[in-house]
Amino acid sequence: MPHPCFVRLSIMLRLITPRLQNHVKLPLFASRVPAGFPSPADDHLEAELDLNDYLIDHPAETFFVRAKGDSMLQAGIFDKDLLIVDRSLTPKDNDIVIAAVGGELTVKRLCIRLGQPWLLPANPAYKPIPIKEGSELYVWGVVIHAVHHIKGKG
Amino acid sequence: MIALVDCNNFYVSCERVFNPRLEGKPVGILSNNDGCIIARSEEIKKLGVAMGTPYFKIPDLIKRHNIQILSSNYALYGSMSRRVMQVLGRFTPTMEVYSIDECFLDLSGFSQNLSAFGNMIAKTVNQGTGIPVSIGIGPTKTLAKLANKLAKKGIAGKGQVLDWTTLKNVNAILEQFPVNDVWGISSGWGTRLTKLGIANTLALKQADPKWVKQHFGVVLERIVREINGTPCIPLELIAPPRKQILTSRSFGERLTELDDLRAAVSVFSARSAEKLRRLNLCTQSICVFIHTSPFDLTKPGYNNAVTITFDKPSDDSGKLIQCALTGLERIYKPGYRYQRAGVLLPELLPAGVRQLSLFSDEPEENLKPGRRMATIDGINRRYGRHTIRYASDKLSQKWQMRQNQKSQAYTTDWAALPIVKVV
Which of A53, A85, B270, B377 has an alpha carbon 20 to 30 Å from A113's alpha carbon atom? Predict the structure, then answer.
């Protein structure tokens, strides 16, 4: 049994690791039983692929939100999709962003024209909104992936 | 050099990240059972609502100023705190997480302009997590704390970062700074110091450390030396081992029936056992207490506690629940309106050290409940806290806390993710 101090230490170390806890399992040996023939692949084992690694670069700054509405179909965002939002990224022209507008979180496309940032709605029924200094709207984070279920959940 | 990073109005800030509607409005967060206001936005502070104000006392004010009131949502605050600390961990290898919303960073050896560095840290945390922070920087922990308070008061001018060593009129500032506000000084000490002629922090700084040690002991002496810029309180990189575990709640309503109390006590015992196992500790005894409300002056009051000692140390939920319930039955008296119960593990031992009992008639297999507990913990960690629990939990739900205005667990529950409108 490790001494309590070491238990705490491991917690501290986890804190400074830039990665949220995930469930990657490293297989030590492919063949389960020591008896019998060892698997010829035992010397070539690699970690299984992990979607967290693939989708998330900044775990502490990444948030999941749920999309509601279908006016961003052409951007690949469907109703009920899970959006993965990285807040550490500085929003750039043409990024799909989460913006706080009128006290609500919404999905918009950021557009910078002549140094002026605009939020473009996907729906032509809505007008583009300029982002002005001191206004109550702000960019909340940059959408980096949309997770869309083809079958099953959703 | 040491920096103290403190999240501004942390609980309110967490709520605002996911609910922009709260921005700019007076917001108050309630304690367990929606009793008192325990966290406040700047706007509600300006309305004169003090820390700890009972919720039921200010209905008119709430209505008049459209004050937003929320129950506390610790799942959210815990998750946001971990995120903030992780971001901070990228800036220095040496840090001490001091509380849910405060963290000391060791900046010794950093050669750059520390104010600018602090501003960069604050900006990164704010952008990445949405939480605004204030940063005080100083040669000692005490001065970093002090600089942080000054930064919050706006002494730094613009921005929320203040490097103590850049201040010119240090003595004039300390003269205005009450000793009570210095980190580590209790109000009792503050009163005594004032009586002895040390009313402000400048006087404390100039006090003779030996005299201070004689009259107040080594702790205050260290504080005096720290105010003078000599580091005496090192960063605690490893938290000291826990001495006790206390799990206690006041109930959402007064309870009279034994079964209601049983359900509460068994949940508290299971929670305590989980904490034990997480810290790799075990306990030799468990103390159960129940009491009526000290404010129910019209009804008879009763409080009692009992400690049950095991024949050998354990971290087994079943064992703790069983003993706690035995204890509860011993102290329970019908006819009272109970307000609170709790379970205390007064003495903790490292889990590896187990003295077997010479006279125990428990079967051998009970000596190793470890695997069963590890399995349950694993399942609960993976599928949610309440996936596997003890049946005695189910006796009653009446004890559950009142939390009528709780926001969602935005970051820890798939079903509670923030909704964004696609328009």
Answer: A85
